[in-house]
Amino acid sequence: MPLIAVLPGDGIGPEVTTQARRVLEALDLGLSFEEAPVGGAAYLQSGRPLPPETVALAKRADAVLFGAIGDPRFEALERRLRPEAALLGIRRELGLFANIRPAKLFPGLEDASPLKAEVVAGLDLVIVRELTGDVYFGEKGRRTNQEGLRQGYDWMGYDEGEVERIARIGFETARKRRRKLCSVDKANVLETSQLWRDVVNELSTEYPDVHLTHMYVDNAAMQLVRRPAEFDVIVTGNLFGDILSDQASMCAGSIGMLPSASLSGGSGANGMYEPIHGSAPDIAGQGKANPCAAILSAAMLLRHSLENEASAQRIEAAVAQALVGGARTPDLGGTHTTQQMGDAVVQALR
Ligand SMILES: NC(=O)c1ccc[n+]([C@@H]2O[C@H](COP(=O)([O-])OP(=O)(O)OC[C@H]3O[C@@H](n4cnc5c(N)ncnc54)[C@H](O)[C@@H]3O)[C@@H](O)[C@H]2O)c1
Ligand SMILES: CC(C)[C@H](C(=O)O)[C@@H](O)C(=O)O
Ligand SMILES: [Mg+2]
């Protein structure tokens, strides 16, 4: 019986994860679930945002269903105690270097995006974001500079091995889709990006069937608003991928629509699945959160970790059907509660 570790986290994390778990249970796949605290919720219980028992469960499980972390009450804590440290810590502990973030326009959501319907028509892209390197994990600190001023610093860097393994996932992903790979960097300024570009170019000789382009991140941000449907697969570093995926979510109508898979390689072993959004403290506890991103993350879990493509597609079809049937949370311009949106998806599964 496959074991799913459920880490609901903070804010709307538990609300959306409840709906994702319901959907998985409704499929009757004989999964077992075990829950553990993470983030601010875990800090309150044990003084640690990422308790060792939570890491142990995640490692023991076949896959992890993650909600969201973040709590404004803990913003002033030192970095290692903040909820965000738990998310970075678990990604590192599980070696989840590849973060797959699909942005797709679901039928009926043409008018949910602030972009014109004709601009987002046909939107179907995947951001392949590197997840365990870059400026996120370089040396950080505070010091006093020569003028006696306080200075904060975060070292940015990638080694060629890190670039090659994520670029390979980008090429492989593109190969299974429309065979277009856009590598996004800031090679006109950053040495890190120049190495990134060199390694991607070198690897491209193994993928002559994939059309590779390079784009600076500032241009990519603009093109995502101008012609988002032109993109097929984007491969990029940790920081740029974080920012561009939130932006791409609005092309699809809402940040509440974008799921993600975090993987440790080509296989889904120990994969972690989470919506790209955060704990949304502004709407937490009000039943306003859109659970679709979490539900679609559960579909990715079935696809990548349990190799159950048919059930993954059933969930995606049920989300589409619920939306076509008019189910909409407030972020999509509707009045459905989180629970009612979950009801509509479960109903559509039957
Ligand atoms: N993966 C994660 O767990 C993750 C991701 C991003 C941010 N965070 C953390 O979450 C906290 C809040 O960060 P933030 O406000 O910058 O980003 P956020 O993603 O939590 O929220 C941004 C905006 O989007 C809305 N939103 C987010 N998810 C939604 C959903 N499912 N349905 C409807 N509306 C939704 C929120 O109400 C808010 O207005 C911070 O502590 C941050 O560090 C965690
Ligand atoms: C909360 C934060 C550490 C995280 C990130 O930057 O990776 C989040 O924004 C995300 O997109 O998953
Ligand atoms: Mg983010």
UniProtKB/TrEMBL annotation:
It is an enzyme of class 1 (oxidoreductase). Pfam families: Iso_dh. Mg(2+) binds at D218, D242, D246. It catalyses: (2R,3S)-3-isopropylmalate + NAD(+) = 4-methyl-2-oxopentanoate + CO2 + NADH. GO terms for biological process: L-leucine biosynthetic process. Its main location: cytoplasm. Binds 1 Mg(2+) or Mn(2+) ion per subunit. NAD(+) binds at G278, S279, A280, P281, D282, I283, A284, G285, Q286, G287, K288, A289, N290. One of its GO terms (cellular component) is cytosol. Keywords: Amino-acid biosynthesis, Branched-chain amino acid biosynthesis, Cytoplasm, Leucine biosynthesis, Magnesium, Manganese, Metal-binding, NAD, Oxidoreductase. Substrate binds at R91, R101, R129, D218. It is found in: Cytoplasm. PANTHER family: 3-ISOPROPYLMALATE DEHYDROGENASE (PTHR42979). Belongs to the isocitrate and isopropylmalate dehydrogenases family. LeuB type 1 subfamily. This is 3-isopropylmalate dehydrogenase.
